[in-house]
Design goal:
Elements (H helix, E strand, L loop, with lengths): L2 H37 L7 H6 L5 E4 L5 E4 L17 H11 L7 E7 L2 E11 L5 E7 L1 H37 L4 H32 L7 E4 H11 L1 H7 L2 E4 L6 E4 L1 H17 L6 E9 L2 E7 L7 H4 L11 H7 L5 H11 L3 E7 L3 E9 L12 H30 L1
Parallel strand pairs: 7-9
Antiparallel strand pairs: 1-2, 1-5, 3-4, 4-5, 6-8, 9-10, 10-12, 11-12
Helix pairs in contact: 4-5, 5-11, 6-8, 8-11
Length: 409
């Protein structure tokens, strides 16, 4: 081998060795960088600004489970920079994210103040040592979903009873076709069940409309008209139950709202008061104004409501006295409609009750001045308009008669 070939061979060997050394050095540098990155708790640029701008609770935690960055909304859940995670499940989710097994958002119960909230937690890695935890409060969504499930289940159960009764009574009428007296009796019961079924369906629709935030037909309503209507509607029920309806003094009070919903809400309170009052007692309906708020109170001398039941009587299908509700044919939706209807009008419903002493339900609504809104008043406005039209007609007739008398003269 001549010198030129030796030189070329040496150059080739040197290039191979040099390249190998270079690769080893590069690999060493990359390994060192990875090791430094794993050991580093330095927060990447921009993370603090992004976390600080989040409206939801968002935190960055290190490998020890210590919060290093937290959004302003995180304080309420005890997630504060410099402290460890207050919940073991949060720490478990952070470890799972570092291990590469992070999943979809997981619901976790967390304490916020004195309440337990349900939050959906999602964990994602930022660096090998840092994990981002994003929390979204889903308590209200969970509550609404549960209410919807309960509503469907309870509605199905409540509809089965009158629907089944209608079917059985139909069969009974068919089998007793040759006995007119029996047919009349079954027909009366069938009519009662049909009325109950129609009332239940109507109230379910009303409650669904209220919860769907459908627009209301708002206008000025005279409170005296609402009270008069409620008394007239339930006079027969009160007479059958031998309960006296007592009304307080009339007032010139007005509210702004949907007349149909307000009448139904007040009517539900009066019907409940009659249903839960003993024979010989009385139900009182009074109106007063307190600092610009109209208070319509319905009081009875009935069985009263236990303190542990008072917070639940406005729930759909909840009945404090199941046996009496079955006897009176209640749907369990009346007070729920009252609550939602009054809230849609910017008011509230208050309850005072003592077992054995009776109950008082009070509807509180903002007072309105008649004519202060674009919509016209309910019945009083129509009466005034009719009177004005009649007066104008009388004046025109009088003028025509005067002209006729003048022409005759």
């Amino acid at each position: 081998m001549d010198s030129a070939q030796l030189a070329l061979f040496a150059l080739l060997v040197g290039a191979v060795l040099g390249g190998s050394v270079a690769l080893v050095v590069a690999a060493a540098y990359r390994a060192r960088d990875r090791a430094v990155q794993r050991a580093s708790a330095q927060i990447p640029g921009g993370i603090r600004a992004v976390v600080g701008a989040m409206a939801d609770p968002v935190v960055v935690v290190d490998a020890s489970g210590t919060v290093v960055v937290a959004s302003p909304a995180s304080d309420g859940f005890g997630l504060v920079a410099g402290r460890t995670l207050p919940d073991d499940q949060l720490a478990l989710l952070a470890r799972a994210a570092r291990a590469g097994t992070a999943s979809e958002p997981v619901p976790v119960p967390l304490r916020r103040g004195g309440d337990t909230r349900t939050v959906a937690v999602q964990a994602r890695t930022i660096t090998p040592r840092l994990v981002l935890l994003v929390l979204h409060d889903v308590t209200e969504q969970e509550r609404v979903a549960k209410m919807r499930r309960d509503f469907v289940a309870n509605t199905s159960h409540e509809l089965k009873t009158p629907a089944g009764a209608v079917g059985l009574l139909g069969e009974a009428i068919e089998s007793a076709a040759d006995d007119p007296a029996e047919v009349r009796g079954f027909a009366r019961r069938l009519r009662a069940e049909a009325v109950r079924l129609g009332e239940l369906t109507s109230r379910i629709m009303t409650l669904s409309q209220l919860e769907a935030d459908e627009p209301l037909v708002m206008r000025d309503v005279a409170v005296d008209e609402l009270v008069t209507g409620a008394i007239e509607t339930h006079e027969e029920q009160a007479g059958t139950a031998r309960v006296d309806l007592a009304r307080g003094a009339q007032t010139d009070a007005w509210v702004h709202g949907d007349p149909r919903l307000l009448a139904e809400a007040l009517g539900n309170l009066v019907a409940n008061a009659i249903a839960y009052s003993p024979a010989g007692s009385h139900v009182g309906i009074g109106v007063k104004t307190v600092q610009g708020v109209i208070e319509i109170s319905v009081s009875d001398q009935g069985i009263g409501i236990a303190e542990e039941d008072q917070a639940r009587v406005f729930e759909r299908f909840y009945r404090a006295d199941q046996a009496r509700s079955r006897r009176t044919g209640g749907t369990g939706l009346g007070l729920a409609i009252v609550k939602h209807a009054v809230q849609r009008h910017g008011g509230e419903v208050r309850l005072w009750s003592r077992p054995g002493q009776g109950s008082t339900f009070t509807i509180r609504l903002p007072r309105a001045e008649p004519g202060s809104h674009e919509a016209t008043a309910v019945k009083p406005a129509k009466k005034k308009a009719a009177k004005a039209n009649k007066s104008a007609t009388d004046k025109k007739s009088a003028k025509k008669n005067d002209r006729r008398r003048d022409s005759i003269a």
